[in-house]
Amino acid sequence: MISAIVLTYNSEDNIRRCLQSIKGLDEIIVIDSHSDDNTTKIAEEFGARVIHRDYPGYSEQLEYGISIAKNEWIFVIDSDEEATPELITEINSISNNPDDNIDGYTVPRRFIFLGKFIEHGGWYPDHQYRFFRKDRSVPDHKEVHGAYQPKEYSGKLTGDIIHYSYRNLFDYVSRINVYTSLETSNKLNGNGGNGRNGTKKVKWYNMLINPIPVFLKMFFLRKGYKDGMHGFILSLFSAMNNSILYAKLWEYGSSGKYGYEKPPITNEELNEFRKRGDN
Fold first, then answer.
1. Are 122 and 225 within 8 A, CB to CB?
2. What does the alpha-carbon distance between residue 223 and residue 262 come to, in Å, rounded to a whole number?
3. Is 111 helix (H, G, I), strand (E, B) or coil?
4. What Rg value do the Cα atoms of the chain yield, rounded?
5. Which pLDDT tens digit goes with each residue over 128-184?
6. Where are the beta strands (DSSP E) in the chain?
């Protein structure tokens, strides 16, 4: 038997499509971060178990959902995603006849960008670890892009998740701003950083030169050009993301020197920053 976990916040535009695709699973748990639209009402229409909870970060919220799930097998799907019928058939078959050597499975994800399925540039198959045994997988907590990992062995599924990503470029740019702030924390606490209170040395040329190979790799080496203008925009904005990240690393490390307020780089800090009336 399978428990599906869906994290939501003001997801009424997508949640119905998502839940429709998984309605046949044994349990659906929606962890909602206090939406003020019709998200939870729609979830309840599908018989989902809805929990209202402050958002501590993706992997932490997911960990809570998994902890209250009733079943051994967990299927993780985001509110802006849809499971194909082939994938649902595949995971039901595995849960009924499991391979005892496998902790969980990665799932290929189709990326829909401005109405187009992106096939190149490294965007497909974009395997995500989304179907696993709850007692044989562990969280990798990060401020952004945190996820679950197998304790030992994983397999690969063939059915797709379809990811309906950014609604438009305004949405994309807005998320770049958020994700680069959170990625700053990841960088400070990862290789090359000196921890939450430390710095990562950044030079001006990091902002200018480091994004170039990002674009070249995505657009040329991984053939993003085959996706036309969509592929060009994704390659360009991915390079821009890299430049902004280095700028924010410099900003965080230089705040003490120049006497300005340290920028928010964790989910908790971003939540508090948004509540303030002076921004």
1. no
2. 39
3. strand
4. 20
5. 999 999 999 999 999 999 999 999 999 999 999 999 999 999 999 999 999 999 999
6. 2-8, 27-32, 49-52, 73-76, 81-83, 104-107, 109-113, 116-118, 128-133, 137-140, 147-150, 154-156, 161-164
DSSP 57: -
Residue type, 264: P
> What is the domain partition of the chain in residue ranges?
2-164, 169-275
**Cα gap 257→272, rounded to integer Å:** 24
- Secondary structure (3-state) at 132: strand
What is the total residue count of the chain? 279
Nearest to 47 by CA among 65, 28, 33: 28
pLDDT digits (tens, 9 = 90+) for 193-208: 455 544 568 999 999 9
Tokens standing for residue 7: 């994290």
Domain 2-164 annotated CATH 3.90.550.10:
yes
Q: What is the pLDDT of residues 85-130, one digit of tens each?
A: 999 999 999 999 999 999 999 999 999 999 999 999 999 999 999 9
Q: Which two tokens stand for residue 41?
A: 């009402």
Could you tell me the pTM of the whole model?
0.94
In b/e form, how buried is each residue of 59-68, taking b as 16+ CB within 10 angstroms? bbbbbebbee
Element (H, E) at 87: helix 85-96
